[in-house]
Amino acid sequence: MALMTGEEYVESIRKMNMQVYMFGEKIENPVDHPILRPSLNSVKMTYDLAQMPEHEDLMVTTSHITGEKINRFTHIHQSTDDLMKKVKMQRLCGQKTAACFQRCVGMDAFNAVYSTTYECDQAHGTHYHDNFKTFLTYCQNNDLTIDGAMTDPKGDRSKAPHAQEDPDLFLHVVERREDGIVVRGAKAHQTGIVNSHEVIVMPTIAMGEADKDYAVSFAVPVDAEGIFMIIGRQSCDTRKLEGGDLDVGNSEFGGMEALVVFDDVFVPNDRIFMDGEYDFSGMLVERFAGYHRQSYGGCKVGVGDVLIGAAAVAADYNGAQKASHVKDKLIEMTHLNETLFCCGIACSAEGSKTASGNYLINLLLANVCKQNVTRYPYEIARLAEDLAGGLMVTAPSEKDFKDPVIGPVIDKYFKGVANISTENRLKIMRLIENLTLGTAAVGYRTESMHGAGSPQAQRIMISRQGNLEMKKELAKTIAKIHE
Ligand code: SF4
Ligand code: FE
């Protein structure tokens, strides 16, 4: 079974026995919980699209290990063409969900761990690459969704992992046994964890010898003993409990994040991909972050496409579509959005082969891509709010709209152009609200800022990769300076 249908995916998650907490309660059935279900639907879309012949070229590829058809989300990139197709696939998924579809973190972890374990084995004589390939083959054969867990809670940012007052603020090995290791700690902001089958854990920063026990990478099922998750709130999340469709803006799709706690979790030897090789921690972080910064040049662009479309529809419904400033704002939004796409494609086209054989993006350009993503979606959202008008945040509730007495009043006074129903006008307002201020704003705005690393993390990489010395030499040569 190389490809699961969307329904099979949902049933496979339903069978898992995860420990999930939200609003002070243990959630026994996360799959059908109204707050969580939209996030599962977003991941399901990565399975549904792979079943459609018109999307096969982007969604489905061939495993370089087994030669079988696999979902691209489980693929090891074999060329720069693969890297570009990855970005295009993410744009497509963003367009179809208008949310974070979560499955990319696993794909990015696959590719970072693949090349790093290979180079670590070369340097240390370890056998992590074989471990990883076995795990990867299992994931490809069963079409699994994987959470890529990097971000530790980090405690006091001025202190290294081993120097924290609480040793668990970075995930670490607490026991080494004949058959494996026991780990303790947590990973924060884990996108899609409740919708994943397995989790790949990676260290969050470059480490020194004193942090040896923190330089650890492995994979375990998300329902392994000792793992539990606490779901993060999103603004307007409880609107999903109200039953209607209108007020949530995007009733079918969403994203989710959680704090995932590893409370003395056992990891068998064959699932370990790094244990103490602190000199490879930085490489793993840099590569995973690089791949995920590339990803944002696809997924956020797809969501941006929906937001631009929504703003244009709002302008149509207001009868403002012919105003020159409205047209110009839509051009500006498009320009910004396509600039992000250019970055995603450029860092892919400029990718190169690693020693392990898979392809890595151009790290400088991937960091430039993500740095732009920390800015442009904010401007696109600002322009969308401008075009939508104040009704986006003052519109009455669906219950009022459906009320036999109050409803007709709302219908009369919130009508735009005559041939469009007030209900449709309210629907597009709520979608823009959802994308800029509501639950999807987690994925479109704040995740654009902090996901795959906060802006300063990219600036450090840009300064490292920018080759300033070479540029100084260029200037001296042109100026005929001989020092
Ligand atoms: Fe994928 Fe984007 Fe969500 Fe990251 S933020 S998991 S790249 S959709
Ligand atoms: Fe993300």
What can be said about this structure in brief?
The chain contains 17 helices and 14 strands. The protein has 483 residues and is an alpha+beta fold. The chain starts with 5 loop residues before the first helix and ends in a 5-residue tail after the last helix.
Provide structural commentary.
- This protein is an alpha+beta fold and 483 residues long.
- It has two domains: 6-281, Butyryl-CoA Dehydrogenase, subunit A, domain 2 (Beta Barrel), CATH 2.40.110.10; 284-466, Up-down Bundle (Butyryl-CoA Dehydrogenase, subunit A, domain 3), CATH 1.20.140.10.
- Helix content is 48%, strand content 13%.
- The chain contains 17 helices and 14 strands.
- It has helices at residues 6-14, 37-48, 56-59, 80-97, 104-124, 128-142, 281-318, 324-349, 363-373, 376-388, 391-394, 398-402, 407-413, 422-436, 439-450, 455-465, 468-478; strands at residues 20-22, 25-26, 60-62, 69-71, 146-149, 172-177, 180-187, 198-201, 216-221, 227-231, 258-268, 272-275, 352-353, 359-360.
- The strands form four sheets. Strands 2-1-10-11-7-6 form a six-stranded mixed sheet, with no helix packed on it. The chain has a four-stranded mixed sheet with strand order 5-8-9-12.
- Helix 5 packs antiparallel against helix 6 (128-142), helix 7 (281-318) runs antiparallel to helix 8 and helix 8 packs antiparallel against helix 9.
- The chain is globular and about 75 Å long.
- The mean pLDDT is 97.
- Iron/sulfur cluster is lined by residues 100-102, 104-105, 191, 295-296, 299, 447, 451.
